[in-house]
Specification:
The chain is of the alpha+beta class. The protein has one domain: Alpha-Beta Plaits (2-Layer Sandwich). About 25% of the residues lie in helices and about 35% in strands. The protein has two helices and six strands; from the N terminus they run E-H-E-E-H-E-E-E. The strands form two sheets. Strands 2-3-1-6 form a four-stranded antiparallel beta sheet, with helices on one face. It is globular, with a radius of gyration of 12 Å.
């Protein structure tokens, strides 16, 4: 299951984000979205967890929790609309 994490502190690293979600189960991938011009985080990213149950418990526990100096928002990632 792919999970969207929004309102990330710009200093948050992929390693920190991945480790946070690993407390709930295995993480298949972790991708922060980086601004091409500045090279800085855009403040959101995606986590992919192979087990739906683990992803759901991570979403429930981490939504509105604090990471760094920001309160993050966590929800199921929706597919792109063309």
């Amino acid at each position: 299951m792919k999970v969207l994490v929004r309102n990330l502190d710009r200093a948050t690293t992929e390693k920190e984000l991945s480790e946070l979600f690993q407390t709930f189960g295995s993480v298949q991938s972790c991708d922060l979205i980086i601004d091409k011009v500045s090279g800085e985080s855009k403040g959101f990213g995606f986590i992919e967890m192979p087990k739906v149950g683990e992803a759901k418990s991570a979403m429930k526990a981490l939504n509105n929790s604090t990471l760094g100096s920001n309160k993050i928002r966590v929800k199921k990632a929706e597919g792109k609309v063309d």
